């Protein structure tokens, strides 16, 4: 959303700015792609300088830090922006207190837009703690959905390889490599987010009540489950990669073997025909009109003898 939007909440309902002094809490979202938003965020009162610096930074890593009764949270979510890869996860920076929550981002985040739409429709969280829990839950649910889709892709690839070994091509190895890269990226982002949620569920801030920690416990279990799923997918792809390499190598060996047999059959034939074709005198059968046919019969006999020999040696 391009315009700076500040929401005030009182008793589970949105109120206008005239009630801001008596509201339970407020939420302001900054789109840092806009210079005016970045400047406005830098002037926000009562946010520690270290938190402001982290929120305005272009590069961020998932983490959580507490300061007095406030908390800085940096997380990553699935990238649903057009022409961008979903595993190139977008970063959301959050400063949250009992009566205020501030979010900012450099790229559009679908989760924030969905929450705003729900709040406008009347589904308003009662407190900043509940809003934070809902935001993180939706963020992680989208991550889980994407990982499940990735798991389906791995299963389909495994099925196609199992059912059609003859149809395996070099493209399959490219698909395996692409899926493995996605898994690596997701794991790199989810591992620190596991620590963030772990700290949230163990936080001792007064405004973070036990019932809200249940959300974070659930999110922690979700992240752990996602990481386990990624591990399983990685192992599957490693096995598939080995299978594909074996199948392609076996196919190459068979082709090479066939060519070797063909070469072994034609090597003596080529030697004999080459010997008979040299341009010198004294070649036997030169004056015999049946020499050509006798030579052909001889070559056929040689091929038959080779075939019998190769079969006895179990080369055929």
UniProtKB/TrEMBL annotation:
Signal peptide: none
UniProt subcellular location: Cell membrane
GO cellular component: plasma membrane
Transmembrane portions of the chain: 257-280, 292-310
MF terms in GO: cobalt ion binding; cobalt ion transmembrane transporter activity; magnesium ion binding; magnesium ion transmembrane transporter activity
Keywords, comma-separated and alphabetical: Cell inner membrane, Cell membrane, Ion transport, Membrane, Transmembrane, Transmembrane helix, Transport, Zinc
Major subcellular location class: membrane
Membrane topology: Multi-pass membrane protein
InterPro entries: CorA_cytoplasmic_dom (IPR045861), CorA_TM1_TM2 (IPR045863), MgTranspt_CorA/ZnTranspt_ZntB (IPR002523)
Protein name stated in the entry: Zinc transporter ZntB
Species per Swiss-Prot/TrEMBL record: Leucothrix arctica
Upper lineage: Bacteria, Pseudomonadati, Pseudomonadota, Gammaproteobacteria, Thiotrichales
